[in-house]
Amino acid sequence: ELILSLRSKLQTLGEERELVLSETRECAERGKELEAMVRDVCKPNEFERYMMFIGDLEKVVSLLLCLSSRLARVQNAMKRIDEKTDAEEKQSLNERHELLSRQREDAKELKENLDRRARVVFGILAKYLTDQQLQGYRHFVQVKTSLLIEQKDLEEQIKFLEEQLENLEKSIP
């Protein structure tokens, strides 16, 4: 029953992932339309700032999500430490935890910098776009970020369930 339940949940998550991927493709199309519009109305250096911001948005959000996920896994492993855990493994986990914590703090600084750049890009676009077009731009940035987060979350859930299913199947003779 547990195996069937895990497989059913995996199938549901797979379907959700397909939906998110479809929304991601739609968002990418909207991004291309927005890019063409910005290219048409902005000066070349302003367009370059826009493009750098949009490219860095995905990179920074993905980096933060990845580091947070890895840090959570290390923290979970640290919670399972007991008197049977050897000193080398404890030290390794502590070192990884410290490293990932520092990296996540650095990534948060990158995100703060990105937020400042977002305000600059918005200021540039506000000179050229209508209120409706600006709302479309804001919506695009929010949706792009949300989809990245949702996609990463689904991938993590799927990976976790696949590992559970694999371990469960191995444990049954």
TrEMBL record:
Residues 1-173 form the ASD2 domain. It is found in: Cytoplasm, Cytoskeleton. One of its GO terms (molecular function) is actin filament binding. It comes from the Eukaryota. InterPro entries: ASD2_dom (IPR014799), Shroom_fam (IPR027685). Residues 71-120, 144-171 form a coiled coil. Keywords: Coiled coil, Cytoplasm, Cytoskeleton. One of its GO terms (biological process) is actin filament organization. Gene3D superfamilies: 6.10.250.3120. One of its GO terms (cellular component) is apical junction complex. Belongs to the shroom family. This is Protein Shroom1.
